[in-house]
Specification:
With 989 residues, the chain is of the alpha+beta class. The chain is built from 31 helices and 22 strands. The protein is globular, with a radius of gyration of 34 Å.
Length: 989
């Protein structure tokens, strides 16, 4: 084998990368274990301990802090950690109306309403829908009359065509979505999220946000749906405010003299330097500036300055401590910011703060710390409003200035430019001196985003903001500045809350299924293939290590479907080994030596391995593109697993075999029980194909009958819209009785109640108030639910809840159709290119549709019969696509054997009885691989189904029946049907 040295080098290199990536989890585990040991069950103490360790080096080799290490570990998804995910929709209708200066034109507003209705019904592009609707209402109308305003003059001329207006609106819509993304991300950062996951859903006006660990749903909803408010404020300089802060400090000391107590810190350290403590001012002694001071007496004497608030200071030429100039008046640890603001709000402190001053925090902590800047905002107007609002910005863009440094160029509206001239003149210092230049704070949602210093009066409204920016910083700042220009309200169209107890159950069940499934595979390979099976097992262990390491390196979010994807990938990865081992056994049966048989086995199996893995990877890519949340997590792990499996199962196992051969070790590929398995099989698949057609047709007809009987498919909440709650009771509950109690409280609306795994855990779905735009609708429905459940007399807890509006439900349906059709087109093209026969491609695609119809038929037939709901939702679509991948993988293996046999005979194709014989030979010669791979995957899925938890049981059930149908389809439908598709060619031949 050539390239053994390179393969070993790559394996070692990849191993080092994976080991490094996984080491962060071990380090954080040790720190958090120490925190739990210190806290002894006190969550406040535990959090205080971890906060104190945030900036401490905990990685011994690289000196990384706990905060840095925590950000590099594998992130757990909502189903494993608990938390909340939200889909936000940016209102492009209100954006469009705002761009037209809120016109009252009847046709314009009717076009907006019609476009929104069509978008809700499944339309994809609001701007195109709006322009089309307006042109229907006013065939010769000019949209430029509405949009060619003074603010838009630079981008849109008065004589612009409707096509030009459409292009302008599309750009503004995309820009508004980008700005909303930045604003929402800024808000979430301010919320104190750990590893939030945010994604713009391409081609739509929606943003998906996943927030592990968050349980305060009302606060999140308020945070995300509040209107963004951009403001410009003048600020006080640090020396101007110190006297006020000192007075506050003294007053606090007096009031807290007899009551203040400070608990000792766990490993708390001084993160500041002695030079910054203002000891030379004669007002303070040097103190520990950590949030929980070690010296309680010193904290009583100075409860604010030096204990919580670190004043900005420096040493002058004489070695004296002086107050530093600038807009920042001090820094505070993140965990102490609320305490500082509580001090400022005390009745005895409020009178000490002038009405022209209010404190605000900076957006982000200082680099490498958890300390936030505190600013003193100057209120210059009688009504307390900012000097300038965000509506004064006409445009802002990321740019480059002197020495190619990133900066932001900003333009004001005419009215804004006049105000900006006045503000900058007041902030600017002495010309040509700049020693007393002041800053202007750019504030978003009452948080200071940045506070650039003004060097001079800006008369024309064109400004440049420069500083220590990266290009990403300037892009974000430009988007923030533009945010106030046009209101584009965001509303929540879908949210899903998972309680932490449910998350722990998911972790336990996921780990159980993972371990058991892995043991099942190892045992099977060792028992069936003897010593060669142990080589495959070693490759599997290496593959598992690589999968976890690569996921950690890419910062992937691990979900329960993701764990299912890993387990499934491990099950599928044995497919490559089975293909190779079965070919080796064929070569050994011909009397070849072990070394030659291994070489030939790898050579002949390679084409099938590559084709089958490429088709699965294509399916994984489609899942990643069309899926969201758990489905995307499943797809990512599937794709990563396919790549690592190819490397481990093919290359590493080959190197191991080469090493064993070099040592002249005895390598066996069977035992006395498996030696003659699947030999001398001559099943007539082709001759019985019409019987298989009849069986499939009868099942599909039965499915159609049950579809009509049941009134359609059992669509999940993500397809039809509604709210779903998982409720756990303290005793067994009757579903009909619970539904009967709920309907009156839902004002007659449907309450669909089903068991969720056990009789004391119920899944309750209702469309009650789903169309209601009232922000309190969620609370109204939950209150009604609680009232109805209270009448059952049982104790209960709501463990999770999900809301999906019909708007997003229609998008999911069309996305599902698109995923299935797109995957079929790609499969057809791939097989056409690889096998150069359209009959093969069409046969495979017909088999794919056959599989989808059979799975749907079984779902309609078995719905209500099984003890768990069979809903058609996003997970079901993922299962369908994966089933299609199974079928395609097995079909391609058979096609490969046909192509190989034709190549040996020197023919491009055969017809009639010769083709029947060839196809039967290909099906029978690959039957061992088909059955063994199917059984392996089936056992893995069965283990996940039994131990994997309720949240993915329906998903795994679809894969289970899909696995059976896929095997049946690849043997009895996809290949035999090629004969019927080639009848005309056979006649011509």
């Amino acid at each position: 084998m050539q390239g053994k040295g390179f393969i070993k080098f790559m394996a070692i290199l990849l191993g080092i990368v994976c080991l490094y990536s996984l080491s962060f989890n071990l380090v954080t585990y040790n720190v958090e274990k120490d925190a739990k040991a210190y806290a002894k069950g006190d969550t406040i103490k535990e959090k205080a301990y971890l906060d104190s360790m945030a900036t401490q080096p905990v990685y011994p080799v690289f000196g990384l802090t706990y905060q840095q290490v925590k950000g590099k570990e594998i992130n757990l998804g909502l189903d494993l950690k608990g938390g909340m995910n939200v889909t936000m929709e940016i209102s492009l209708a209100e954006l469009t109306k705002s761009l037209a200066n809120n016109t009252t034109d009847a046709n314009f507003n009717e076009a907006l309403r019609n476009a929104q209705a069509k978008l809700n019904a499944g339309g994809s592009d609001f701007i195109s829908l709006f322009v089309n609707e307006y042109e229907k209402l006013v065939p010769n109308g000019k949209l430029a009359d509405f949009f060619s305003t003074q603010d838009n003059a630079a981008q849109l001329k008065a004589n612009a065509s409707n096509a030009d207006v459409k292009s302008f609106l599309s750009k503004e819509a995309n820009s508004a979505i980008d700005r909303s993304f930045i604003i929402l991300r800024s808000r979430i950062d301010g919320f104190g999220m750990v590893s939030p996951n945010m994604q713009k859903q391409e081609g739509s006006n929606r943003i998906f946000i996943e927030m592990p660990g968050v349980q305060d749903k009302e606060r999140v909803r308020k945070l995300l749906q509040g209107s963004a408010e951009l403001q410009f404020w003048q600020v006080y300089q640090n020396p101007e405010v110190y006297g006020i802060l000192d007075n506050i400090n003294k007053t606090l000391a007096a009031s807290l003299k007899d009551t203040a107590t400070v608990a000792p810190a766990a490993k708390a350290t001084d993160t500041t330097k002695a030079d910054n403590k203002l000891a030379g001012l004669g007002k303070l002694n040097k103190k520990d500036t950590s949030a929980t001071a070690k010296n309680a007496d010193a904290a009583k004497a100075s409860p604010l300055i030096g204990t919580l608030l670190e004043i900005q200071a420096y040493k002058d030429q004489n070695g004296q401590i002086q107050l530093a100039p600038g807009a920042v008046v001090g820094t505070v640890l993140q965990k102490d910011t609320a305490k500082v603001m509580a001090y400022f709000a005390k009745p005895e402190i409020k009178p000490l703060i002038p009405g022209t001053l209010k404190f605000m925090w900076g957006l982000k902590p200082k680099d490498g710390t958890k300390r936030f800047d505190l600013y003193a905002i100057k209120v210059t107007s009688m009504d307390g409003k900012p000097a300038l609002g965000g509506d004064a910005i006409s445009n802002a863009r990321s740019d480059y200035g002197e020495n190619n440094k990133p900066q932001v160029s900003m333009n004001m509206t005419a009215d804004g430019a006049a105000k900006w001239k006045k503000i900058t003149a007041e902030a600017a210092g002495i010309p040509d001196d700049h020693s007393d230049d002041k800053a202007i704070a750019i504030v978003l949602d009452n948080t200071v985003y940045t506070a650039p210093t003004v060097n001079g009066e800006i008369p024309n409204g064109s400004s440049v903001i420069s500083g220590s920016f990266t290009i990403d910083d300037t892009k974000d700042l430009a988007n923030i500045l533009k945010a106030g220009k046009l209101p584009a309200p965001a509303k929540i169209v879908s949210d899903f809350v998972v309680g932490p107890s449910l998350g722990q159950q998911a972790i336990d069940s996921g780990l159980s299924s993972f371990i058991i499934a892995f043991v099942v595979i190892l045992a099977f390979m060792a028992l069936y293939y003897n010593k060669a099976g142990w080589v495959a097992n070693l490759a599997l262990l290496i593959n598992l290590f690589f999968i976890m390491g690569v996921l950690a390196a890419f910062g992937a979010v691990l979900t329960l479907p993701g764990i299912a994807g890993i387990v499934l990938t491990i099950g599928l990865s044995v497919d490559a080994n089975i293909l190779i081992f079965e070919r080796v056994r064929e070569e050994l049966a011909q009397g070849k030596s072990t070394g030659v048989a291994i070489k030939e086995g790898f050579k002949h199996a390679m084409s099938s391995i590559i084709d089958s893995n490429v088709t699965l990877f294509i399916l994984g890519a489609i899942l990643a593109i069309f899926g969201t949340g758990p489905v995307r997590g499943f797809a990512v792990t599937l794709m990563v697993g396919i790549v690592t499996s190819l490397f481990a199962a093919v290359l590493i196992s080959r190197v191991i075999f080469e090493g064993l051969l070099a040592k002249k070790a005895n390598i066996s590929f069977d035992n006395k029980y498996t030696k003659n398995a699947f030999k001398n099989i001559a099943f007539n698949f082709v001759g019985r194909r019409k019987l298989y057609y009849i069986i499939s047709t009868l099942i599909i007809i039965a499915g159609i009958g049950f579809y009509v009987k049941n009134g359609g498919l059992n669509l999940g909440v993500d397809f039809k819209g509604g709210r779903t709650y998982i409720v756990k009771f303290d005793k067994l509950m009757n579903t009909e009785e619970v539904a009967h109690k709920l309907v009156p409280h839902f004002e007659g609306e449907e309450a669909l109640v089903k068991t969720a795994g056990t009789d004391n855990s119920l899944k309750i779905t209702t469309p009650y108030h789903i169309q209601d735009q009232d922000p309190n609708a969620d609370k109204i429905v939950e209150n009604a639910l609680r009232k109805g459940l209270a009448e059952t007399g049982a104790k209960f807890t709501i463990e999770s809840q999900q809301k999906v509006t019909p708007t997003i439900a229609s998008d999911i349906i069309y996305g599902a159709y698109g995923a299935i059709l797109f995957s079929c087109v790609l499969m057809f093209i791939y097989i056409l290119v690889r096998f150069r026969k359209w009959q093969y491609g069409l046969g495979a695609v017909i088999a794919l549709f056959h599989d989808v119809l059979l799975v749907l038929s079984f779902y309609t037939i078995l719905d209500g019969v099984l003890p768990f709901p069979l809903e058609i939702g996003q997970d079901f679509i993922a299962a369908i696509l994966t089933v299609m991948g199974y079928t395609m993988t097995e079909t391609v293996v058979v096609f490969d054997r046909i192509r190989e046999k034709l190549g040996e005979s020197g023919k491009t194709d055969v017809y009639g009885a010769e083709r029947d014989t060839l196809i039967n030979f290909a099906l029978n010669s690959t039957l061992s691989r088909t059955i063994l791979t199917s059984l392996t995957v089936f056992f893995v899925l069965l283990v996940i189904f039994i131990f994997g938890g309720d949240s993915i049981r329906g998903f795994i059930f679809a894969l289970l029946i899909g696995r059976i149908i896929g095997t049946y389809s690849s043997l009895c439908i996809s290949t035999p049907i090629v004969i019927d598709l080639s009848k005309n060619e056979a006649k011509k031949a």
